[in-house]
């Protein structure tokens, strides 16, 4: 043990707010086990278990990790994530962990104990008792590597933690892997319904960070943000790279931040360390509300005190004197009721989800970088959702529910103003749609438009594109910083897929003939070909100047005309005032097209 004490140390890796990059806490990662002759940290813990030294090693490591953390400036404002020894399931471990915090003067809420994926429920029946002990001492709990090993839904159900840390396997390439995205999105939704924060662990690329934020993860950790650091001086209070990445890749639709701020109520809070008399004073001063937010020493909300829960003490003859009497030993924390916490940068849907999942709550506490920002009552939340729905409806096409002209205009404005990126803008409309609509009627015409909108969602939006509906049979799609080859491949597939799928809307006889006997736009009866899409694709490369809106409009009109005349229906322009390139026709077997519908 003496050699281990002299050799082992801890590196700290930041865990940050996924919206702003502000530090929420640090994970303590063990270093030096290799110098003791072990291949991994787990091998060291396994050997300690064999030698019956697990408890002693755990106490030494806990004290070491806490002392490293406590040396940070403003350490009490953060949370230390410490990995538990998977062998050591001790029902009295919470009391032991508290002892680590005493010398540096830290509080229980500064420590979060991570349950390893290697802890098997079936081998440790006392696991629940141990976690209950942590709760009793106000220590926090996290499930590490959620989705791998034993860190699954059963543990989330039986022992709801404060945090879950998603396994790196699920995070890797999540921006391009639709199945992983779907799994994580559903996991995040489930965690939030249980009022559990989600940490995206192992983020290494901007795409992974953006996707994890988009699907609702709360916190982020990984090499993209910061490497584990042995030198505390190398750690920062804010990792502005996170905010910069979001700013560069901001969504074309405005966020909900401004709307949420307009409904935010700034109810004066009290700290959990303050006395009952201070609680009475807060209720007396604020006649409008019947709740008091309670914070820890780092300004993080712990919950609410409801006036109704202490009214018997307030209004009884001796209750008020009794409850403030030190001998009675009642504290503010004895009256705190849980309340959902939501970051102010989260969408309104997240607020509603948190409120709906909570039992008998007055509303939602709003935080910024983990600190108390205000409160939104149930009544205000209903009004907030109504305002959000109205705003969304104004920006949507009523038929397809795709973003309409305003979001499309915002996207194009970004593309022509942010000249350090490459952009691809696609303008799409149908060929021979008027003949189809006149012949079969507007209801079947609407079905064709909705069919194409569904294809845009499946083939483009699910792969990082922005898609919109200009109106009628005119659509728009755009993407930033994507290779031209990948863009062309996806757009060619989209056009050919629609050409085949839309044939299902024709009557069998017309489909066999390959045309309609219908009037053209001049009223002349003629053979009208079956419908297809034509697409004008504009590539904007770094440095290209398309700031003249009128010139851009003329360019798009010319490209659309050329696309309608081309065999493939796809025309590309790669530089301002450059030539239009007609793309070759792509063949797609009808059975292949049908397979993609599943």
From TrEMBL:
Domain CBS as annotated: residue spans: 263-322
Alphabetically ordered keywords of this record: CBS domain
Molecular-function GO terms, alphabetical: cyclic-guanylate-specific phosphodiesterase activity
Region Disordered: start-end pairs: 566-598
Every GGDEF domain range: 421-576
Cross-referenced Pfam families: CBS, EAL, GGDEF
InterPro entries documented for this protein: CBS_dom, CBS_dom_sf, Cyclic-di-GMP_PDE-like, EAL_dom, EAL_sf, GGDEF_dom, Nucleotide_cyclase, Rev_trsase/Diguanyl_cyclase
EAL domain residues: 1-242
SMART domains, sorted: EAL, GGDEF
Residues spanning the membrane: none
Origin superkingdom: Bacteria
SUPFAM superfamilies named among the record's database cross-references: CBS-domain pair, EAL domain-like, Nucleotide cyclase
PANTHER family documented for this protein: CYCLIC DI-GMP PHOSPHODIESTERASE PDEF, SIGNALING PROTEIN
Entry protein name: EAL domain-containing protein
Naturally occurring in which organism (per UniProt): Allochromatium palmeri
């Amino acid at each position: 043990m003496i050699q281990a004490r002299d050799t082992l140390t801890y590196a700290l890796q930041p865990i940050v707010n996924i919206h702003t990059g502000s530090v929420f806490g640090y994970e303590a990662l063990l270093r030096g086990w290799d110098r003791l002759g072990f291949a991994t940290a787990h091998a060291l813990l396994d050997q300690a278990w064999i030698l019956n030294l697990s408890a002693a090693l755990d106490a030494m490591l806990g004290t070491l990790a806490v002392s490293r953390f406590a040396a940070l400036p403003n350490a009490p404002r953060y949370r230390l994530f410490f990995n538990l020894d998977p062998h050591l399931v001790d029902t009295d471990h919470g009391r032991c962990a508290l002892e680590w915090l005493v010398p540096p003067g830290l509080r229980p809420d500064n420590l979060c104990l991570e349950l390893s994926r290697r802890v098997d429920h079936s081998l440790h029946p006392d696991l629940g008792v141990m976690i209950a002990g942590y709760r009793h001492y106000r220590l926090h709990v996290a499930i590490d590597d959620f989705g791998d090993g034993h860190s699954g839904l059963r543990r989330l159900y039986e022992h709801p933690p404060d945090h879950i840390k998603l396994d790196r396997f699920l995070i890797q390439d999540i921006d391009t892997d639709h199945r992983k995205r779907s799994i994580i999105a559903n996991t995040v939704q489930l965690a939030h319904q249980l009022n559990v924060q989600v940490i995206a662990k192992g983020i290494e690329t901007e795409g992974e960070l953006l996707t994890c934020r988009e699907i609702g993860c709360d916190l982020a950790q990984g090499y993209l943000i910061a490497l584990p650091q042995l030198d505390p001086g190398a750690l920062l209070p804010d990792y502005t790279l996170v905010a910069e990445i979001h700013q560069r890749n901001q969504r074309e639709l405005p966020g909900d931040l401004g709307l949420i701020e307009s409904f935010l109520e700034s109810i004066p809070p009290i700290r959990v360390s303050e006395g009952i008399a201070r609680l009475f004073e807060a209720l007396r001063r604020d006649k409008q509300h019947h709740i008091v937010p309670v914070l820890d020493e780092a300004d993080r909300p712990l919950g609410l005190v409801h006036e109704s829960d202490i009214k018997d003490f307030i209004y009884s003859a001796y209750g008020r004197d009794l409850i403030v009497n030190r001998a009675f030993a009642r504290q503010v924390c004895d009256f705190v009721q849980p309340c959902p916490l939501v970051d102010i940068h989260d969408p309104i849907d997240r607020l509603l989800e948190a409120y709906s999942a909570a039992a008998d709550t007055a509303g939602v506490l709003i935080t910024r970088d983990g600190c108390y920002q205000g409160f939104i009552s149930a009544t205000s939340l209903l009004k907030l959702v109504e305002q959000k729905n109205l705003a969304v409806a104004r920006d949507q096409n009523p038929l397809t529910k795709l973003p309409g002209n305003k979001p499309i205009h915002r996207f194009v404005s970004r593309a022509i103003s942010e000249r350090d990126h490459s952009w691809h803008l696609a303008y799409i409309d149908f060929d021979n749609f008027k003949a189809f609509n006149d012949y079969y009627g507007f209801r079947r015409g609407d079905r064709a438009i909705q069919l194409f909108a569904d294809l845009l969602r499946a083939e483009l939006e699910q792969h990082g594109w922005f898609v919109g509906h200009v109106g009628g049979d005119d659509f728009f799609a755009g993407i930033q910083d994507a290779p031209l080859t990948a863009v062309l491949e996806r757009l060619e597939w989209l056009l050919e897929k629609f050409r085949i799928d839309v044939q299902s809307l024709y009557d069998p006889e017309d489909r066999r003939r390959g045309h309609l006997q219908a009037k053209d736009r001049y009223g002349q009866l003629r053979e009208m070909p079956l419908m297809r899409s034509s697409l004008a694709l504009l590539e904007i490369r770094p440095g290209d100047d398309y700031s003249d809106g009128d010139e851009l409009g003329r360019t798009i009109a010319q490209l659309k005309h050329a696309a309608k005349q081309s065999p493939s229906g796809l025309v590309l322009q790669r530089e301002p005032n450059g030539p239009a390139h007609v793309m070759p026709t792509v063949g797609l077997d009808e059975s292949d097209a049908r397979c993609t519908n599943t």
